[in-house]
Amino acid sequence: MLLDKHIVIIGGTTGIGLSAAKAFIRQGAKVISVGRDQLNTQRAQDELGDSGLVFSGDATAETTAPDAIDLCIRTWGSFDGLYHIAGGSGRKMGDGPLHEMTLDGWQRTLELNLTSMMLSNKAAINAFLHEKTGGTILNMGSVLAYSPASHYFSTHAYAAAKAAIIGLSRAAAAYYARSNIRINVIAPGLVETPMAQRAAGDADIMRFVRTKQPLDGGRIAKPTDLDGAACYLLSDLAGFTTGQVLAVDGGWAISDGQL
What integer pLDDT is reported at residue 198 of this predicted model? Predict the structure, then answer.
């Protein structure tokens, strides 16, 4: 599906990103996986083999995405797609319900999730325009952007950031379609990542999740559950698809969830 594609993954050394990198390679791509933790980057390099290169960098730094894209072009000869996954919960930084949220929690959560995505997307757009080749961008959203679950998942800065990712992605998709640049969003439900440890360790939340994500017996998603959608949206099979939000949520957005 991705034969001869060269893809940069921002946040590609653990969890969803590492799973995607391995899936892309199985589908014929070569990848640059960007992560900031040195231990994770070394482990990821060992797992990706010769078809992947791991690049160490902070997604919130302005130079990280341009440098990774430049490495992709120098190493593999072209740059075809960007998958932006980097982000995370701001709960420990002061995110939460609006009346309790701190200004620092708001700013740091938006920087981690929204500003990092703006920077990587800007770098990708500039590369595609310079090369005059077109290309594709896939961004990581969340069902919390449009389908809140207030009892257990009340991090309002995170929800705002993910809603803004959808808005920015759709606005950019409309603007750059004339340049054959496609931009789409995956919106997952609760996925088995380090960010989900709070929920996974709470029996009450897990009982709720089993009714909120009822597919396959009711469970947290695995990172591999997102790989098929990512491969499709970054492939030529989705060549006439842009500005779309694809929920991979186990039924979250259409299920009530029982407290």
Answer: 86
Confidence at residue 199, expressed as pLDDT on a 0 to 100 scale: 84
CA distance 26 to 151: 40
Report the pLDDT value the prediction gives residue 121, as an integer from 0 to 100: 98
Catalytic option among 83, 152, 158, 175 = 158
158 catalytically annotated: yes
Q: What is the rounded CA–CA span in Å between residue 136 and residue 161?
A: 21
Could you report the average pLDDT of every consecutive run of 10 residues in the chain (259 residues)?
Answer: 98 95 98 89 90 95 98 97 96 96 98 98 98 96 96 96 98 98 98 84 93 96 97 98 98 95
Tokens encoding 122: 């800007």
Handedness of CA 148, 194, 140, 66 (dihedral sign): positive
* CA 254 to the chain's CA centroid: 22
Among 136, 154, 135, CA closest to 144: 154
The pLDDT assigned to 201 comes to 87
3-class secondary structure per residue, the chain: CCCCCEEEEECCCCHHHHHHHHHHHHCCCEEEEEECCHHHHHHHHHHHHHHEEEEECCCCCCCHHHHHHHHHHHHHCCCCEEEECCCCCCHHHCCCCCCCCCHHHHHHHHHHHHHHHHHHHHHHHHHHHHHCCCEEEEEECCHHHCCCECCCECCHHHHHHHHHHHHHHHHHHHHHHHHCEEEEEEEECCECCHHHHHHHCCHHHHHHHHHHCCHHHCCCECHHHHHHHHHHHHCHHHCCCCCCEEEECCCHHHCCCCC
